[in-house]
# Entry
Amino acid sequence: MKAAGWFDGACLGNPGPMGAGAVVDIEGKRKELARAMGRGTNNQAEYSGLIWPFGTPSPRVRTTSSSTATRSWCCGSL
# Structure
């Protein structure tokens, strides 16, 4: 199975209202996801952007993020 995902999260203020979005591609079928996540910090929004659509990070799913903090948390030090 080929699976890939692109995700991001942000908040208005830090902390503040946050949201997350993702594009998930499984075997060439794409789905766009977005949702409000309540109040939190920017890092919480970024982590939620990964965990909410993909579950626990897995080497079977190639993910892409602009967040250095999330990549470091998921993949170890960069």
Summary: The chain has a mean pLDDT of 80.
